[in-house]
């Protein structure tokens, strides 16, 4: 394209009935460069925090397999990516001067000939979302660790996963993945992340609780060294330490000795799961009796230890209790509610909360979730929630 002269620019302004005195004296004449194809470039809108990450030289990663909606992850947060269309075409111009830059130098009354390097009518918008962590447990449960003598571990039929593998397969940031591995009590065995098979975990826990009982140690002060010494002949020492870490809090006393303060609620909960997993439904009063007899001496069982693990059916006669684990429910909000309303038509807020509180986004309350996905009504003076849509 021929370069425009100042006279041509002034003539164009006159034709357009524009007063040059109201405009900045500098003029950008735009032309499309040879490479200015659409679709070559993508725009990504970043919040200030993410922008600072990039400016500090850290990287952002897009994660997801072919059948998954892409997410973008920083070191510690996960964002949904959605395309936002814009009615104004966005032009990419290298070296383009903004009005502020032109204003700063009154000597500028030249003509700039700028080439457009690309254009776009949309951009990627990021929205903070919950990390998609359900798959993490699912992958590790393909091949739970059954102990050093297990035959299954000799046959390499299933994939095993390193941290790198999980980072490429799970749609969550590195910090969120590592935190979740702690939450689900995964442990690293020979460089691979594993979950202990439940019966093996119970066997280890049983060894530890029996030792605590026979040595009459207080639950708040279980010595690591003595546990490893006593139980090391029965199971690998790292497994003994792992079970202490899973069911206790590690601390060092003034003399530098390592102790564990055992978590009573978590131990009671695990024993309840062991009792419930072999029954479809269990008479509630019988269960409470057997459960209290099954936990280590000095521990007190309470139904609130079973939140998100088991559900009491007060409408049956006699009352019953059955296993319902929050981790077995769908990750998607609507699917989660459909599943819960399929199990029980009407829920009280107290009963449903343990099964939906993990769905709450940042600063979102359980009440707000219920308002969106459920309809409330009164039943015998108690507020209950049922589905907004028919459940097939």
TrEMBL record:
Pfam families reported for this sequence: Dcc1 (PF09724)
A GO CC term attached to the entry: Ctf18 RFC-like complex
GO biological process: DNA replication; maintenance of mitotic sister chromatid cohesion
Keywords: DNA replication
Ubl conjugation is among the record's keywords: no
UniProt cross-references to InterPro entries, sorted A to Z: Dcc1
Protein family: Belongs to the DCC1 family.
PANTHER family to which the protein is assigned, alphabetical: SISTER CHROMATID COHESION PROTEIN DCC1, SISTER CHROMATID COHESION PROTEIN DCC1-RELATED
Protein name as annotated: Sister chromatid cohesion protein DCC1
Gene giving rise to this polypeptide: Dscc1
